[in-house]
Design a protein that fits this description.
mainly alpha, 16 helices
Length: about 400
């Protein structure tokens, strides 16, 4: 009974946070709407299906209550700053380096055959079959296979999609060139077997349009349907949630089971994992990027792997929400650390709402780790990727002063 009461409070806090963020002067696609919306959905789904899972300790739910209360007060504190609408227009703008952007597209296209041959060699067979694609995913996740030097290139495929959409919407780039960027990003997402890479492409394309006021509800629903179709494609190839040989009812049942393992199970799995966090690792997981750099220089040992074994909740999952690496490093205090990224999101969002092209792209990038919180941490554990994307922004977008409008002569 106490568990249900605490869970009710937790749902009430996140729904109220969503209500304030949605109806306040925060604007569309603001970080607080995304944060409270995603967590409210998870908690509601857990409340509905909690009988399917092993019990979650009351202490764990109380910690979540404190964390989301903290997030709510962070949101309120953010509103005390200068309102977005009253800020003056920017005297400068970022324009697209069209030549470099086109060269990047050509490089991505030229690298595709080599990339394709590499992943086929990892799979040992065609990757357009369920067996081959599953084998490729196993090679990436369990055998330590990576993209090698090409790995520095495919990140730019996703960035080119965001920048292409932005400048096409601003009529500074041919729309077909923007479409080509999205297609290239989707191909690379498929070849790397990352389902969240499809989500990344979706966010990188949708968020700039939303911030520019060029995205309608109907268009968003269509794009969301396209994203779901790609998820189903990967699910069918990996035999997780869909199969061409199964009936519709069997596919629906399998899809619901898969959705459980990705959306609800990580929340339960973290509560089960907490008993194994004997001593704080003090940054060994969340600061893994820096330890990896030191290890490459021969100054330290290689950091612990972030690949996790499966936890049975009883639904099997190897995802443990954003809090896992921070709790491993800093015990219960680690639950509050991811919330501290919200003011950073809010700062980027305010800059983006003013029409600052560079911040529109950076904020679009930041929505990816924000929305994948319910699955795993993508803030500190993907620092190398964020650095690559920021360098790409710096190269592809040039800052210049806005031309002073001529005053008509009388």
């Amino acid at each position: 009974m106490l568990t249900i009461f605490i869970l009710f409070i937790l749902i009430a806090i996140t729904l109220f946070g969503l209500f304030v963020a949605k109806l306040g002067k925060f604007g569309p696609f603001n970080p607080f709407t995304l944060f409270f919306g995603s967590w409210a959905a998870i908690f509601i789904m857990y409340a509905v299906f909690q009988d399917v899972y092993y019990p979650v300790p009351e202490e764990y739910l109380l910690i979540q209550v404190c964390v989301h209360l903290f997030a709510f007060f962070v949101m309120i504190g953010s509103q005390l700053s200068k309102p977005i609408a009253k800020q003056p227009a920017l005297p400068y703008e970022y324009v697209l380096n069209k030549k470099l952007f086109t060269l990047l597209q050509i490089a991505l296209l030229l690298a595709l055959p080599a990339f394709y041959q590499m992943v086929v060699s990892y799979a040992g067979q065609s990757i357009f079959t369920s067996t081959g694609y599953t084998r490729l995913r196993y090679a990436f996740n369990n055998e330590g296979r990576d993209m090698g030097r090409l790995g520095y290139l495919y990140s730019f495929a996703f960035l080119s999609a965001a920048i292409g959409v932005l400048y096409a919407a601003k009529n500074q780039l041919n729309k077909w060139q923007a479409v080509l960027s999205i297609l290239i990003a989707l191909i690379y997402a498929f070849l790397t077997t990352g389902r969240t890479f499809f989500l990344m492409t979706f966010l990188f394309a949708v968020v700039p349009l939303a911030l520019l006021g060029k995205l309608k509800v109907k268009s968003l629903m269509i794009l969301s349907g396209v994203l779901l179709s790609f998820f189903l494609l990967v699910a069918s190839l990996t035999s997780k949630g869909a199969s061409t040989d199964a009936s519709f009812s069997d596919n629906m049942s399998s899809f619901i089971e898969s959705a459980h393992s990705y959306l609800i199970a990580p929340f339960v799995a973290l509560s089960m994992q907490m008993s194994e966090f004997d001593a704080p690792a003090l940054g060994e997981y969340s600061l893994r990027f820096f330890f990896s750099v030191l290890a490459a220089l021969g100054l330290t040992n290689r950091p612990m792997s972030l690949v996790r074994g499966y936890e049975f909740t009883p639904a099997p999952t190897n995802l443990y929400t954003v809090y896992e690496v921070y709790v491993r490093d800093f015990a219960v205090f680690g639950f509050f650390l991811p919330v501290l990224f919200l003011p950073i999101h809010w700062y980027l969002y305010k800059k983006a709402r003013r029409g600052h092209e560079l911040y529109i792209i950076i904020y679009a990038i930041s929505t990816y780790p924000l929305l994948t919180q319910v699955l795993q941490d993508q803030y500190m554990t993907l620092i190398s990727t964020w650095i690559q994307l920021f360098i790409g922004c710096w190269l592809l977008m040039k800052k210049r002063k806005k031309p002073i409008p001529e005053t008509p002569s009388e």
